[in-house]
Write a structure and sequence with these properties.
This protein is α/β, with parallel strands linked by helices. Helices cover 37% and strands 36% of the residues. Strands 1, 2, 3, 4, 5 and 6 form a six-stranded mixed β-sheet that branches. It is globular and about 45 Å long. The protein starts with a helix and ends with a helix. The N terminus is likely disordered.
Length: 156
Amino acid sequence: MSGPAEEKQKNVIRLSVRALVAFSIFPPDIMPMSFSLMEEGRKAHMSRQEISGAKREQGLKFQGSRQGVDFYISGRMDLYDPDITPPLIEEIKLSGGEAPQEARREHLYQALCYGYMLCLRDEISVVTIRVSYATIQGELVAAFDEVYSFKALEEA
């Protein structure tokens, strides 16, 4: 027999931040279509993380309700530096050649989700969001930084 707690658990939508953004925006870039692209992206992440002095792969989660639906959303910040003011979250993406002129919307939204979850968890009022584009060797091709207040992240 299942009780009320078990029934409630079954009605929770569980998503990764990446899947949430992919569902919301769905460009092919956020969910690579080939194993080779996934592997190149993994190598770029690892290389960039090794170069940086920030914390790597810091997990975050959000549990709550929106419009009567219960959610559990989780993900990992690629890089997180809590020792600078304001703290920095860096979302790393593989550069596809030419440097972009601005952060792609789907990449920024991923980072904004992490910013919101971090501010909520740690009661931080301001955070810097960086979307960076790196080569497989971890060298930055472009980086886009913007400071966001918790209120702005709530509204995003």
